[in-house]
Amino acid sequence: MNGALPIARHQSPLTRRSMLLGSISLASLLARDAESMAGSATSAAAHRGLPSLPHYRPKVKRVIYLFQSGGPAQMDLFDYKPGLKNKFGEEVPKSVYPDDRKTTMSSAQTSFPVAPSIFKFAQHGQAGSWITELLPQIATQADEMCIIRSMHTDAINHDPAITFQQSGSQIPGRPSIGSWIGYGLGSENENLPAFVAMSSKGSAKAGQPLYDRLWGSGFLPSKHQGVKFRNQGDPVLDITDPAGVSRQVRRTMLDSLAEMNQLKHVEAGDPEIQSRIAQYELAYRMQMSVPDLLDFSDEPTHVLDMYGDDVKKQGKYAYNCLIARRLAERGVRFIQLFHQGWDQHNNVPDTLPKQCMDTDQATAALIRDLKQRGMLEDTLIIWGGEFGRTIYSQGKLTDKVYGRDHHPSCFTMWLAGGGIKGGTNYGSTDDYSVNVAENGVSVHDLHATILHLLGIDHERLIYRYQGRDFRLTDVFGNVVKPILA
Q: Three-class SS of residue 421?
């Protein structure tokens, strides 16, 4: 018995009925894999997505989410408040900003002086959108953007706020938005995952930590979790075969492993075993598709120049933006870029320009690139962070230096691409950029709108877990119809 092959040890306790079922299932699995390797035209969405989706005709096929981790200061970038110039150094009225809404990082201050933005603003596009001088390239794309100045969230600290933005809950463990979308719609490319996540660090500072659960599948089958492309070394671990292992040997190993896993699935009935088989097969196909994806030799010089000097530096924001476009044109459903470094509690005038310089050119280039390829019309681009910043200065205020604490009550995000009214502004804040004054948009509303553009009714994308029906938007959320084209 000790010398028996592993597969024989798994066979011994099985009934003939189980063996028959296992053989049928295995034959189906191997036949599907053979079709895939032969170039079958059957799309992944046909067997990975839910058969009932989309619920209606989608406006977009894919999403690129440019997540600016740390909380960009809305009043320094998009929420222009010229009237505050005359209030420099004055105390923010407690009627506007009461003590119980301040974090422990600044609540002990004895003074909360108004810190107007020191940066210049100008109007851009057909709507005359006010945009900071720090984002000159993004400003040229104003007619493609809908700027939402009335976002608000429930969380005041980074981790729960980022978790909320990514999963619809402040409590860790729920599926991320990309996993929900991959679960519902599947992928258009069998050789790449439906959901890819990438990260980059700002030159100003490292920023808040990013955890794998932010692109995790939670209680959904694990095959729907995002695949992280690392920002140094091999982008995907074990993407290359070890020395001495040929493709034929690798194929034989996976076939044997799939057979053992399938037999175990018949015995145990654990759906995660099927997920494991699917992940091994995807990894095998990615060994061919990922090197081609990362080879920029087919990119014209003028396209590389458009993204900037960092475009060929792995782990840089510009590099990730170009990878995002290449993933999009290969049918990846949800692509998320996390850019760290927007958590600026002190010396905003020094650190914010560096963050903007890291991201401005490549963000605008991504929009231009998609548009010139005819892809912007069926791609949704999202830009924004987890919350905004305070109008009062955290720490000492001078005419050249100020800091800003966390602020959940209002912040700015923008959307561009298919199904969005470009060249528009939505919502507004009060004179201090502290509270939403008109047309508030919650995180749940944003998620409902994203799903709607993909042809998904957010109230009908449901997964039952531990006796309860769950959805990305929980029991909340409304599609923000005024921003839709």
A: coil
Shared-domain flag, residues 250 and 371: no
pLDDT (tens place) for every residue of the chain, 485 residues total: 444 444 444 444 444 444 444 444 444 444 444 443 433 333 333 346 999 999 999 999 999 999 999 999 999 999 999 999 999 999 999 999 999 999 999 999 999 999 999 999 999 999 999 999 999 999 999 999 999 999 999 999 999 999 999 999 999 999 999 999 999 999 899 999 999 999 999 887 778 899 999 999 999 999 899 999 998 888 887 677 777 777 776 677 777 777 787 777 777 777 777 767 667 677 667 787 888 999 999 999 999 999 999 999 999 999 999 999 999 999 999 999 999 999 999 999 999 999 999 999 999 999 999 999 999 999 999 999 999 999 999 999 999 999 999 999 999 999 999 999 999 999 999 999 999 999 999 999 999 999 999 999 999 999 999 999 999 999 999 999 999 99
Report the alpha-carbon distance of residue 360 to residue 382 in Å, rounded.
14
Query: Distance between CA atoms of 273 and 172, rounded to whole angstroms?
Result: 24
Residue-number span of the structural domain to which 171 is assigned? 53-235+298-483
Report the DSSP beta bridge partners of residue 114.
Answer: 392
> How far apart (Å, rounded) are the C-alpha atoms in residues 314 and 175?
28
Q: What are phi and psi of 357, to 5 degrees?
A: -65, -35
Number of domains into which the chain is organized: 2
Residue 419 lies in a domain: yes
**Does the residue 140 lie in any domain?**
yes
